[in-house]
Amino acid sequence: MSKHPPGAAYFLEYIPLIQENGGVDGFDPSFSYEKFIPDDGPTGQISALEIAYISKLIRNAEHKGKIPVLTATRSLGRVAGIKFAAPGTHIVLYRNVFEQWCSFSQQHANGNGYFVDRVDDTVKNNLHDPIVREIFQLFPMKTSSLADSSNIMRFFLFHLYLYINAAASADFILDINRVATDRLYRNSVEDLFAGQNIKLDLSDAKNTIGFCYNSEIEFENFKQTVEIYGSSIIDRCQSAPGREFGRKVISDFLREMSQYCYFTRSYASFARITHEKNLSLIKNGELSKQACDELQAQLDVALASQTEAIHAKAVTQAEVEALLRTRDELQAQRDAALASQTEAIHAKAITQAEVEALLRTRDELQAQRDAALASQTEAIHAKAITQAEVEALLRTRDELQAQRDAALASQTEAIHAKAITQAEVEALLRTRDELQAQRDAALASQAEAISQRNMHEYRCSVLLHWFVAYNDSTTASMSWKLTRPLRWIGLGKPRRPKRPDFLEM
């Protein structure tokens, strides 16, 4: 029997994710055991397949307009990796490890070895982690009997290692045992979930404990072994919060186991004696069916007595803790009341002196009030005079405002006229520039005409001189030709003048 409250069947939320050929979309069987602890240890990153699967679960809830809440029972070895892959509020559920062992071992005693076997499977599939491998080597699975102390030691150290690393990464550690026994703590947990828009009622939480196979273990020797190996694991944790929580895990485990051994010592002694008698009877061949039935009946009575004792112990412990809390609250209230009374007496004495001081202050204030009333009368008279002056000033202000408005209107007209004049001036300046350009062009044309005229006059003068010279040379040549002797000897032959250069062009 799981002792879980009535509710819907497990895994109903996975129905939309089930594939036609079976299995949940994105899930790989290796997630359960082989990848329980990442390759780099509990603080390492999870695989890409795990990240994709977690993301798919979150989207499935968000698409339905719900808040994703992943209650992963096999996540204790990879809290850091899941937190990195899916940011949010990450809560680690913690229950006293000895109570967990008792629950598992009782299930085993009732023929359900699933829980114990799954823990052993998880250990065997995560030997890649050096500390898990060390635990397995120190406390191997020599026998399936839970009476073997190696089994409970391996169970405890493995959970200790997981808890200290989970505590280093979690946003909050929810102590199941405190939820059942501490009302204020339970309310704070409910408020935490309310802050995430999740309504949670934990008022029906109960603290129970099952049957333990190891009640005959020599507790002091077992305690020393737990402290030695537990401290060795804690000292290798890099996180201070993780180390602190690890020490709490050890303390809770040993305290609960010590109390269990104390309350069940009579049954343990009876069971040991009965077991020895059974062995003796079997050895001597004297065991009969009737004796077996009687012994079985005695064993059943003893088991029932043990269960009642354990339940009574849990109830009594819860009541004692509640009474202790009530006592502490009442003592705190009493101390507060006494302190309040002392303060009240002291305050009364102070108040009496303050009353006398207030009476004196009242008399002074009354005198000041009378003076203020006289001053007020003068102020009212002055106000009437000031009011007339204010009205005169208002009239003056109105006149000045009218003058200012007229000046502003005149100024606006002047600005408009100035703008028009400015435009005209700019047009005249453009006209001036155009006329100056035309004048410069005319002057340039005139200069060119004068230059051409001068050139023509020069050429005409040169031609005239050339014509005269040419004519003179013609006349001289004719005279020279008439003088035959000179012509024969070629003496005195006149020369023609050189043609002007521009005639050669």
What are the salient characteristics of this protein?
two-stranded parallel ribbon; 70% helix; 505 residues; 2% strand; elongated
Give me a quick take on this structure.
The chain is an all-alpha fold.
Explain what you see.
The chain is elongated. The protein is built from 13 helices and two strands; from the N terminus they run ααβααααβααααααα. The chain has helices at 48-63, 79-85, 97-109, 114-124, 130-138, 149-169, 176-181, 183-194, 219-235, 240-263, 265-284, 289-482, 484-489; strands at residues 91-94, 172-175. Helix content is 70%, strand content 2%. The relative contact order is 0.05. The chain has a two-stranded parallel ribbon. The chain is mainly alpha-helical and 505 residues long. The longest helix has 194 residues, at 289-482. The mean pLDDT is 84. It starts with 47 loop residues before the first helix and ends in a 16-residue tail after the last helix.
